[in-house]
Design a protein that fits this description.
two-stranded antiparallel sheet
């Protein structure tokens, strides 16, 4: 029996009121997708609205391309899956062995506030299944509580740093800062230098700092399933 992992992507495409577009970051989908699927893990994609999730246009810049994103560009099977993501409300934690959230700025607006997403994370975690997040995606844990306590409380975590947000000049645009929120909710937050790969595992919670950390997060998740 192959393992099954649910990937949850954003449906949000507006960067605040700047008129600019956002969405998910392609490297953060592509690298973990191949790191897992190449090991025969079966991956299902879902998003709040279903269908094609928005891609952050900046993640398609030539400077942001990696081997994984180039492979995705030529992968008709994955592109078809992306066009037809399941609606988040129709997926159930019992059908999967773990859940993974790619980042991009989009999740800060929709998934961070999404009650279905919050309950899904609680369901996975409470049933002993790993939950993994990279870059901005740890921000979706903002309001996730188990037994009245924030899920991240007293747990080792990382996520997109304040200085990385500053470097992309979106500190005043995003609804909240990932680093600050994880700390405020009692997370034991650590980081390395900006843009370096870094993943943190605490029990069945896996978090990664930035796009460069996406494959590392997938490798850690693979060990847990």
């Amino acid at each position: 029996m192959s393992k099954k992992v649910l990937f949850v992507l954003t449906s949000h495409d507006e960067l605040g009121n700047t008129g600019l577009k956002t969405g998910f970051w392609t490297e953060e989908l592509a690298a973990p997708y191949y790191a897992l699927s190449d090991q025969n893990v079966e991956i299902t994609l879902a998003s709040p609205k279903g269908g094609q999730p928005p891609i952050d246009p900046k993640s398609e810049d030539p400077s942001s391309q990696t081997d994984a994103t180039r492979r995705m560009d030529n992968d008709e099977v994955l592109k078809e899956k992306l066009k037809n993501t399941h609606t988040l409300s129709e997926v159930r934690s019992e059908d999967f062995d773990a859940v993974f959230y790619p980042g991009g700025h989009g999740p800060l607006w929709d998934l961070a506030e999404d009650k279905v997403s919050q309950q899904l994370i609680v369901d996975f975690y409470s049933n002993g299944k790993p939950v993994a997040f990279v870059c901005h995606a740890p921000g979706v844990l903002k309001d996730v509580k188990i037994d009245g306590e924030y899920l991240v409380k007293d747990k080792h975590v990382t996520g997109f740093t304040n200085t990385e947000e500053d470097a992309v000049q979106l500190t005043d645009i995003v609804p909240f800062l990932v680093e600050d929120t994880l700390k405020k909710n009692g997370g034991l937050y650590t980081k390395v230098e900006d843009w370096a790969p870094y993943a943190v595992v605490d029990g069945r919670l896996v978090t990664g700092q930035n796009p460069a950390s996406s494959e590392k997060v997938a490798e850690e998740l693979l060990k847990l399933i």
